[in-house]
Nitrilase/cyanide hydratase and apolipoprotein N-acyltransferase (Albidiferax ferrireducens), 642 residues
Amino acid sequence: MPRYLNVALGQLGPIQRADSRTQVVARLCELMRQAHAVGAQLIVFPELALTTFFPRWYIEDEAEINSFFEQSMPNAATQPLFDLSKALGVGFYLGYAELAQEATGAVRYNTSILVDRSGQIVAKYRKVHLPGHKEHEPWRRFQHLEKRYFTAGDGWEVTQAFGGVVGMAICNDRRWAETYRVMGLQGVEMVLIGYNTPVHNAPAPEHDDLSLFHNQLSMQAGAYQNGTWVVGVAKAGVEEGVDSIGGSCIIAPSGEVVARCLTKGDEMAIARCDLDFCAIYKRTTFNFDLHRQPQAYGLITQRKGETLGADGTVWAAPSGV
Amino acid sequence: MPRYLNVALGQLGPIQRADSRTQVVARLCELMRQAHAVGAQLIVFPELALTTFFPRWYIEDEAEINSFFEQSMPNAATQPLFDLSKALGVGFYLGYAELAQEATGAVRYNTSILVDRSGQIVAKYRKVHLPGHKEHEPWRRFQHLEKRYFTAGDGWEVTQAFGGVVGMAICNDRRWAETYRVMGLQGVEMVLIGYNTPVHNAPAPEHDDLSLFHNQLSMQAGAYQNGTWVVGVAKAGVEEGVDSIGGSCIIAPSGEVVARCLTKGDEMAIARCDLDFCAIYKRTTFNFDLHRQPQAYGLITQRKGETLGADGTVWAAPSGV
């Protein structure tokens, strides 16, 4: 008795600074229409999918920073996407910069939402693993100031939606095994991940040519080791002079890639995912109740970083990394 | 200033039940000589490398079970390997079944040791993730009774040896991201892993054709996500009618395979591993001190298994899995 969920990749090509949200939302709507035409019930869009990837710039003016953030969701610019979602019965994952009003004041998050097939937001996630750096580092070809512009979220909670157990993560989260495991321990059956990943990594340019490999490796391992589908979606191509990887793909609980985008532009691809396929792994090799040994995992939560190098020294990041 | 360590894969073909330890040790010595001839300083042998993989049989007679275990190490049968190690200056990793005398009586472990270039044991590890089952399950083509014959070890401690930080794991440990992370948090630079992995997995035969892929995927992800070398070594081929995967390989901190065995028999392969290469990852993408978020990882140590299925049920293993 399979539980099929038809899931579409909603990969975006670049969004330049001059592009308006209205223009971008029209592109998202076009991808959603394409997905609907081939039977998709859910489409996954990238991280920060409404604007250019602004953390590449050091910006001091608070109003200018806030211009990249959404103060409410939906809002006037994104309402057409919610309306289309409801009209077509296609849910979506969308990443955006969120300006939240909290008791302590305004807080900025790198956020994703899950919208069901009736156009209603059913879950929100705030990125935990913010990469990059906090201070201006002019030696870099471009900045990666996520640690400056965003506050980290609390963690991962799964949602019962689309006939299964759905979780969300964002970009750098996908490189950390903990991300998938925390959701795996909640029975996740599909993890949705949007990303923006420059080909060039300033602190370690010697592995720029491995960016696509690392992207896929991390998601394949997360899928296999937790018996879950993983859907990774890029904002790809050359955006404001910075080239970003594509490689959007859908990965089965076996770790196998079952759908993939081929370009670095706006592109839709689809897979029919059987959520019951997860059980083949969750009930055998990765039956956590039978096989996990949490008493041996203490350091994972007790310790943040490393304490030993080859000569007994503490690993320390070089300045500016 | 590279820190090179020349590491050899000491893959074994099958060991039949009738093969004596003396015969097996002669094969290990031959592999060590081959490794020494091409400059190896360390050779890694498989899990349970002194006998056939006896957990495939349900055995009731205690004396017969114990016949597969070592009561001391080194012992008369293995002394020639230790002597050769000292004579050649080649250290080794060796997996074997250990019968330990503890205050509570005799305890059986699935164990590995690390021997330095002077032939001295410098570390011992006891397998944490024991796969398989505890009771006799005659429906299986062959048994996998590790949970019956072995007690789980406490966890992973790294050792300063061979000019770097070395860790050990055994077989099924390599599928669990926690294994690598607990050592990564101790600054590990090379993880040594012996394994015996049947091609056929009785509870989930539909992914038998993925056994080699899963083997490599797990080790590649563990290497990349912790910035460490990983050395995986099989006992391969058809042993007492059961076909096991080969796929022994050495994986760089980039996740790339740099050396590989090609057969399912006794085979040596080598790589020159720069331990300083780890830092390229440990100090950038996987700088744990900068980027890990342990406050969000609580479930990993708080919870052993899953609690939610798609319909809110608890995942439960089918009988006999």
About this structure: The radius of gyration of chain A is 19 Å. Residues 315-321 of chain A have pLDDT under 50 and may be disordered.
